[in-house]
Amino acid sequence: MAKVTVPEIRRKKERGEKITMLTAYDTPTARILDECGVDVLLVGDSVGSVVAGYPNTLPVTVEEMIYHTRAVVRGTERALVVIDMPFMSYQVSLEEAKRNAGRMIKESGAEAVKLEGGASMRETIKAIVDIDIPVMGHIGLTPQSIHKLGGYKVQRQREKLLEDARAVEEAGAFAVVLECVPEEVAREITSELSIPTIGIGAGPHCDGQVLVIHDLLGLLGDFRPRFVKRYVNLRPIISEAVKRYIEEVKEGLFPDEEHTFHLGDR
Questions:
Q1: In the predicted model, what is the mean pLDDT of residues 183-203?
Q2: What is the pTM of this model?
Q3: Which superfamily, per CATH, for 6-234?
């Protein structure tokens, strides 16, 4: 299959084709998702919560994002790989934002960066785009602003959401994530913008959808936000396999003859 590029993502909206995006943080997962035909692999700063065990995304560093993105790139041939810019890697100054964006693209192999914020990040998005680094925006519920927002809540300020969406497009972003936005507002934004909208908790009218892969696969136990559809529950399947392994080792059943080497083997 042909490589997915930034211009191709924009053309998908023009053709009315839905865009699929999932998170990935390691090579084996990236390879599976890529082979399945997912359009975009997002190496999200959600890695802090679902992989590293942080209480939220704020502690994630540039170095951690580069490490995980390198792993994803090694498992990817077709999908567009987007790397999240973590908290405080782009908010301090335009120069620092450009420097970090450039470093993250250069050292990770990703093809675009994603950053949170609407109108307040207009100049930052433009500065990064002006040095030829594609930017994906992110408005609505922005997890890096968790303390300001007071929790993970649906964002209902229609005028602010519209202003933020317009600002992201005008600054030169090639797409924008809409997180936890009422369906009616997401539909209005999607209709107004010329760039694709990628929804997560924003209803069916966005140009594409994104989910955290751990949520889709049921790896996080009972944690399941309303907007998440669990397509399979792998947690009990993995638990059962591990329990069988423990039991067989303790009873001397593993390794058996089939899984043992001998001097005469070739």
A1: 98
A2: 0.97
A3: Phosphoenolpyruvate-binding domains (3.20.20.60)
pLDDT at 103 over 80: yes
Residues 6+ apart with CB under 8 A from 79: 4, 30, 33, 34, 38, 39, 40, 41
What Å distances lie between residue 255 and 145, 213, 246, 266, CA to CA?
50, 33, 12, 19
Give me the residue spans of the domains in the chain: 6-234
Residue range 35-55: mean pLDDT, rounded? 98
| Start-to-end Cα distance in the chain | 39
Which residues have a catalytic role annotated? 179
Q: What is the mean pLDDT of residues 173-196?
A: 98
Q: Residue 134, preceding bond cis, omega within 30 degrees?
A: no
**Structure-block tokens of residue 143:** 């997890």
The average confidence (pLDDT) of the chain is 97
